């Protein structure tokens, strides 16, 4: 799976979440699929996932940092990540 492929998780309380951006250190930022108002820092583990609710601005910061890294090191993936950023935060 490419890094920018769509990924979804099922949260036990809030339902489907979609990948907003990698956050580094084995963590990813996900958002609720329908409301797009709640953001989670997620660590996938062999026996499940850890979900930590994070504020909107923290989620946006992680996504902006990922865009900056993509612009430098993965220009072919930049456009798709930038479109996802716009859909989520603008």
Descriptive keywords:
5 strands, SH3 type barrels, alpha+beta, 2 helices, 90 residues
The class by helix and strand makeup works out as alpha+beta
State the separation between the terminal residues, measured CA to CA: 27 Å
Number of domains: 1
Query: Low-confidence segments, ≥5 residues, pLDDT <50?
Result: none
Nearest-integer average pLDDT? 89
The CATH homologous superfamily: Protein of unknown function (DUF3539)
Write up what this structure looks like.
With 90 residues, the protein is α+β, with helices and mostly antiparallel strands. It contains 2 helices and 5 strands. A 5-stranded antiparallel sheet has the order 1-2-3-4-5, with helices on one face. Helix 1 packs antiparallel against helix 2 (75-89). The longest helix is centred in the C-terminal third of the chain and has 18 residues, at 56-73. The protein starts with 7 loop residues before the first strand and ends with a helix.
